[in-house]
Fold this sequence. Notes:
Layout: H1 4-15, E1 31-37, E2 48-49, E3 52-53, H2 56-62, E4 67-70, E5 73-74, H3 81-91, H4 101-104, H5 113-119, E6 123-127, H6 137-144, E7 148-150, E8 162-163, E9 166-167, H7 169-180, E10 187-192, H8 217-242, E11 249-255, H9 265-272, H10 279-284, E12 290-293, E13 302-303, E14 307-308, H11 312-319, E15 343-344, E16 350-351, E17 355-358, E18 361-364, H12 377-398
Parallel strand pairs: 1-10, 1-11, 4-13, 5-14, 6-7, 6-10
Antiparallel strand pairs: 2-3, 4-12, 8-9, 11-12, 15-16, 16-17, 17-18
Helix pairs in contact: 7-8
The structure holds (2R)-2,3-dihydroxypropyl phosphate and manganese (II) ion.
Manganese (II) ion binds near residues 38, 81, 82 and 256.
EC number: 2.7.8.-
Subcellular location: Cell membrane
Protein name: LTA synthase family protein
Amino acid sequence: GSELPSIKEYVETDIEQSGKSELFGIAEDRNVIFISAESLQSFVINNTVNGQEITPFLNGLTEDGDTYYFENFYHQTEQGKTSDSEFLVENSLYPLSRGAVFFTHGQNEYHALPELLGNEGYYSAVFHANNKSFYNRDQMYPNLGFDYFYDEDAYEVTSTNSIGWGLKDKSFFEQSMKYLQTLEEPFYTKFITLTNHFPFELDEQDQSIDRYDSNSNTLNNFFPTVRYMDESIEQFFTQLKDAGLYENSIIIIMGDHYGISSNHNKAMSQYLDKEEITPYDHVQLQRVPLFVHIPGHGEGEVKSTIAGQIDMKPTILSLLGIEVEDDIYFGNDLFNEDRKEYIILRNGDFITKDYIYTHDTCYNFETGAPVEESQTDACSQLTEKVETELGYSDDIIYGDLFRFVDFKEAN
Ligand code: GP9
Ligand code: MN
């Protein structure tokens, strides 16, 4: 672990934020209900298809006083897709540039959110109606400190309540309620949806809006399944209220990664009414929605902060009023003004409030125009830092460096 001292110093000087956010402790002792929304991308939010709203419920949340909506929140996943997004959220470390870290380094020592919350008296569980060994979750979850995994076997899956990858989201949330109601509070729970997954199959009777019309069936099918997920989340909010679990919880909804790959750029440019999808547009399409819903809060707003999945662990800890000393992580509390000014994608691209760097080109964040050669310093100043940061995160994973860290436990 010879890199550890430099990594610690980097985290202390370049990552750690000074002071606390105004929202520190706002959700102290509340339950956390985290919804990992499969393939949900930001371009559908407050948008229409064939003149119809795609996500009426989530659109309502963007205007809701109890909700913060982050419009510039990026997924940072690679080949491990959903599992990479889980890894980012729980650890505030980057996934690997190849393979799924859930598989390749599932036995490592981590200092993950479920474990830290466990130290504070939280019970933690994951709800996901897929085979428990998919992505090595049955090994990885206990290692991250999750107390229980309600996998496919916890659900009644029939030919009528399933499609595509398995149990339909509406039935998934409905069947989860009986378990959720038995959990000891406070709890940290993660619900991973499944219906809005490539190739976006949906039964006719579950389609509330029409398919799109383009040369890509993938994009065409995407909109009705996104709407189905929107409805299933709305229904879940109602179920939480009916069960008396809503008021004393915070609900976080986050898209896990893109659903529409660049193979569908032609159809995507048609939908977005653009001549072509530029490398800049491609990066902007990596935005996934993040909603932080705090019942009774009343001060929610739309946030344009440049943010990413790496930020979830410190943000959740701060909302719950939990301080962890000498932790090692690469994200920031999204509600703290003192923030890192960049978000790094796993391929080395990065985003700041002024620039987007991709394909060796520095683009203006607002206009998408390539920045003039004379001004590209703005981006090149960060390229080295970006490599350092990704490298440190990789060092931790490849070297299993947390074996050598004596994390002080709270309490
Ligand atoms: C599998 C589900 C989907 O359990 O999380 O995984 P993905 O294909 O999106 O990575
Ligand atoms: Mn996924």
